[in-house]
Amino acid sequence: MALCSCSATVDEKLQIAGSELFNKLERRIENLDKELRNFANAARQLGSSIGILSSSFRLRERLAKLLFLFRENAATLFPQKISRQPREAPIIHQWTEQRRTDKQMFPKAHTDPESFPDQIAGFAEDVVTFLNCLNEFPEFTDEAVNTSMRTFECDLKYWASCLQEYKGQFRYPAVQRYIHDLTSEIGEHIDIITVNLSMFIEIGRQLVSLLILYLLFLPGVPTIRFAQQHAASNLLNLSTVATFFSVVTASTLQFSYQLTDGVLETSVNAFWFSSLVFSIAAAVNSLLGLTWKQAVYRSPGHKVPWWVLIWIKRSPLVFLVMSVACFSVGLMLFTYATKQGFVTSTITTVFTVVTSFGLAVVSAWFVSERRVFVRYHGQIWLDDAINEAINEVIHRVLRFSLVVVMRDIIRWCLFAISGLLRRVPLKFPDVITQIGHRDRTLPTMQEGPPMDDLSHRRDISTSASSAFTEHPTSIKGLASEDSKPSHPAIARQRFRGAVRSIIVMQQQKAGRPMMPQRIPSFDWNSAVGMSPTRPSSVDLDAIRGPRATLIPKLKTLEPVQDLSVHTALVRHLQFSPSGKYLATSSWDRSSVIFRVEDAFSIHAILVHVGGFIGQVAWSDSSTLLLTRLPRGIKVWTEDGFCKRTIERPHSVSSVVWLPANETQFLSVEGSRVLKLDIKGRVLDSYHFGGIQLHNVAVSPDGQRLLGVGPLLAAPNGMHPSRTTRVEKCIVVLNMETRTFENQTPVFNDVRDITMSKRGGNVLISFEHKTHPQLWKMELVRDTKDRENPYAQTARLILRHTYEPTVRVDFVGPSYFGGVDDQLVLCAGKAGDIHIWERDTAILLHYIRPQAFGGDLTCVAWNHSTDDPCMLATGSHDGTVHIWRTPMWDCSSDGGSYLEHAGMLGADQHTSSPILGPPPVPGSSRGHR
C-alpha cells in the first residue's frame, strides 16, 4: 500500500508540473492576443491599415488553433489536471457581419495532432506577414520588434522542418512529451514579442502620435471621443469640398442655361444641373451625418435601419463623385455646343475620358476590394481574386477548345470506321452467339464445385483486405490457387477469414482504431537462439526474491580501496566482462589496467604519447582493449601490449565493439559510424544524415544501430537561433537495409546511450541535472514493406525516468549494474551514488556524498558477479575508489522484504551516516 501511495504521489507531481507548464503557455498566448488586439484597435485609426488589421487577426486565429492543439496534447499526457475542450470557432473579424455556423468550426484537419508541423509553419508565415504589413509604414519600423519576430520565424521554421520527420508518430508518448517540452521555448519567444510589441505601442514611433499614446494609457471615453472626432472631421471636409464644387458648378451654369436650341445644348444643361444637385446633396448629407454623429440622444447602430446607416455614412462621398463625373461630361459637351476649336474639343474630350475612367476604375476597385475582403475573411486580396478569375477563364477556354477538337477527331474516326465496316462483310451475330453459348457452358462435377471455388475466392479477398494481413496475395498467387484448389487449405483460409472478420467487427463496434499488429514482448534471447520468454502474471514472491536479496547487499556497499595512480582527472573506467581487470583512462595521457583481487594491483600501464584518452572499451572475451584518442584508436592486449595504432582523419567521439566479435568494432566520427577491424581497415560505413552523433549502441543480434546526438541542421537546411536549443533525437538504423526505422525526439541535451546485454532495454543519459531514462525497443510489423510480410521495424517507448531523492548534478553516463543488468546506477558530482531497480525504477540504495578530496567524474559496475557487488568511481584528482560488499549469506538475513524495500513507516527505519535515508520509491513511468 505504501508503494502504491508513493507511486501515486510521484505521478501526481508529474501531473502538476505538466499542467503548470501548459498553463504558463496559455497565459503567454493570451497576453500576446491581448497586445495584438490593442495594437489593432490603435492602428484602426490610420489610413491603409487594413493589411495590419487582417494580418493581426490571422495571427490571433493561428494562436487559437495552436493553443487548441497544445491543450489536446497536454490533456493526453496529463488527463488528471488538464481537461479537453470542444472545438471552438476561430476569431471572427469584427468588420464582417457574417457569422460562422457550427459546421465552420476548426476543421478536423487542423485539430489532428499530425497537423503540428503545418500549423507551426503557418504560424511562421503569419508572423512574417504581420511584420511585412507593419514595415509598410516607414514610421512603424522598430528594430526590437523586427529582430524578435525574425528570430521567432527562424525557430518556427526550424521546428516545423524537424517535426516533419515524425509524421505518423504524433500520437506516440515520446513525441507528445517532446512537443509539450517545446512549449517552454515557444513561450519564451512569445514573451519577447509581447514585451516588444507593448513597448512599441507605448512609444508610438512618430506615426502613432501622442494622441494615440494618450488613448492607450486612458482607454474608454477618450478613445470613443477621438474616433467620433476623426469621423466628424472627415464629414466636415466632405461638406467643404462639396460646397466649393457647387459654387463652381453654379458659376459655369451662367454660360449655358440659355442654350436650349438643340439636343447637345440641352444635354450640357442637364449634366451641369445634375452636378449642382449632387454637390448640394453631398454638402447637405455631410452636415446631416455630422449632426447625427454628434447627437447625444440617438439610437445605437444596431437599432437603426441599415439603409439609414448607409445613407448617412456613404452618401456624401458617392454624391460628390457623381457630381464630379456629371460636371466633367457636361464640360466636354459644352466645348462642342459652343463650337470651340477642334484642338480644344479634342483635348477636353481626351482628358475627360481619362479622368472619368480613372475615377470609375478606382471607385470600382474600392468597392470590389471591400467585397472580396468581406467574402473571404481577409484570406484573399482583390489582386489574388482577379488572377484566379483570369486563370479560371483561360482554363475554361482551353478546356472548351480541347473538347471541341477531341469531339471533331472522335467524329472523324467513327465516320472512318463506319465506312470501313460497311466494306468488310463480317457476320458479327454468329460470332456473338458462339461466344455467348461458350460462356453459358457450366462446368461438370469433375471440374470442382463452383460454390467452393467462389467461397475460396471470397475468403482470399477477405484475408487480403484485412488489417491484420500476414501474407500479401498477388494475382499470380490467386491464379495458382484457383487452378489447384486444396480443401484443407480452403478450410483453414475460411477459418482465418472468419476470425479476422469477427475481430474487425468488434473493434469497429467498440469504436477503437485499427492498429497494426504488434509482436508481443519481443525477447532478444529468442532472436539469438535462446529460449524465448513471454510476459505473464509472475508470482509476487518471484519479484520479491531478487530484490530482497539485493537490498541488504547494497546497504553494505562501502569504499574499500583508493587507487592513486593518475595525476589528472579520471575520464572513463570499465571492468572487463570476465571481471578480472579494471581499465581506466585519464587526462594525464595514461591508461591503467588493474588486476581485480582482494587488493587491487597494477597489471599494466598504457602510456600514450599525445592526446587525452577519452574512453576505454573491453572486448567480449576480455583479451583486447581499445583506448580512444581525439583522432585515433589504440588496440591493446590484456597484458598491456599495443598491437595497433589506428589514425583517423576525423575526430572520434566513441568506440563500440560489435557483439560476439573480437576483430571488429565501430568508430563514431561526426555523423558517420565506421566499421573497422583491429588492423585499421575500414570494412563498412553507416551515415546518419545531419545528426552529430555522441555515442552509439548495437543490438545483441547485430542488426540495429542506435545513435544519439543533436541535429547539425534541419531537413530544409535551417539552423535555430542562438537562443534556441538544437534538435536532439534517438535514431534506430537497420544495418542490413541501411534505413532509419525510428527517430524519436528528446528535448534535453543527450550524452550517452547504453543497451542491456539481452537487448530491448535502452538507457539514455543526459547532461548534468537531467534524470536518466529507460526506453524499451520493441519490434513491430513493418506495414510499409509490402514485399516482405514478415518484415519488422523497431519502435522506442519510454518506460521509466529515474528520479533521485535530492537534486543531483550528474557526472558521466549512467550504466546498467548487476549480472543481468537488473540495476541502474548513476553518480553525482558531489560524490553521491544512486542505484535503482531497472524494471520498476524503485530507488534501492542511495549513498550520501562522500569526502573523497575531489568531485566524482565517472562510475562503473563489475558485471561478472553479484556476490560480492563491486563498483568503481573516478575522481577529479585522479583517484579511483573501489566499492565492494562482503560475501553475502542469504540464511543470515533475518529482515523482511518490506523492511528492505522501505515500505514501512519512517519511524521503523534506521539510517546510518554512510547509507543515508531509507530508499524512497521515486519513479516517473513512461506514458503508454
From TrEMBL:
PROSITE patterns attached to this UniProt entry: WD_REPEATS_2
Compositional bias annotation for Polar residues: 462-472
Bilayer-crossing regions: 207-224, 236-257, 269-290, 317-336, 342-367
One of the protein's GO biological processes: proteasome-mediated ubiquitin-dependent protein catabolic process
Spans annotated as Disordered: 462-487, 908-928
Keyword Cell wall biogenesis/degradation part of the UniProt annotation: no
Domain of life from the UniProt record: Eukaryota
GO CC, alphabetical: GID complex
Pfam families: WD40
InterPro entries according to UniProt: WD40/YVTN_repeat-like_dom_sf (IPR015943), WD40_repeat_dom_sf (IPR036322), WD40_rpt (IPR001680), WD_repeat-ST_regulator (IPR051350)
Keywords: Membrane, Repeat, Transmembrane, Transmembrane helix, WD repeat
WD repeat feature ranges: 563-604
Protein name: WD40-repeat-containing domain protein
